[in-house]
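INTERNAL AUDIT FORM
Audit reference: QA-55
Scope: verify that the stored structure record matches its stored sequence.
Auditor: D.O.
Record contents follow.
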Amino acid sequence: MTAQQTYLQVLPPDLDRARLPKHVAVIMDGNGRWAKQRGLPRIMGHRRGVDTLKDLLRCCRDWGVEALTAYAFSTENWGRPLEEVDFLMTLFERVLRQELREMMAENVRIQFVGNLQALPSSLQNEITKAVETTRNNPGIQFTVATNYGGRQEILQACRSIATKVQQGLIDPSEIDEALFERHLYTAGNSDPDLLIRTSGEMRISNFLLWQVAYAELYVTDTLWPDFNRAEFHQALSAYQQRDRRFGKV
């Protein structure tokens, strides 16, 4: 471990603990490009990306960030080569199985958001086991967006509310933001304060469209596998320089 890595085990002194984001969301972009730059298969980038995510989760815990949401697999990602999709499904399943004991030891509470019914049944079983096993852990909330799409999430919420209106369970006059949020995949979770996107792409790619309405956006050219604690430190430094007015003066 380098001196810098040791130094970054604790919250850097230039950061104000009282002004840390409570909830950080990440769009983990650049795994394939990272591998291509090194003459490696794309799947090697995904493997390295898992290690990066594990360290970021631990960094959030070490520094006092309460929740981390990661965009692991979008509804559009099914359009990737079949070999890559199959590898990702297998990778998700293997990581869940291997890391469950560690998540319990570190008090991580994991949940998944997205259309999980479309995932392979074996992966669904591992997801259910991980969620149920860690449900009462008091530590960091780790949310994994899998087969997730923001537009699809909003549509399913609208359909659910419309069905309840049709059944007489909800009066249209009762529909407000709070009721709508209770019908999203993320019901019960706080909205992200900070959204980080790696690889320099200036878009949010159908991720948490409702929830990031007032999130601070931070984009870095760094590819996801290279996003380390020093990079996260820079993101938090930038966040703490923002003036979050939420539409007010």
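Auditor finding: record pair retrieved intact. The chain has eight helices and six strands.
Action required: none
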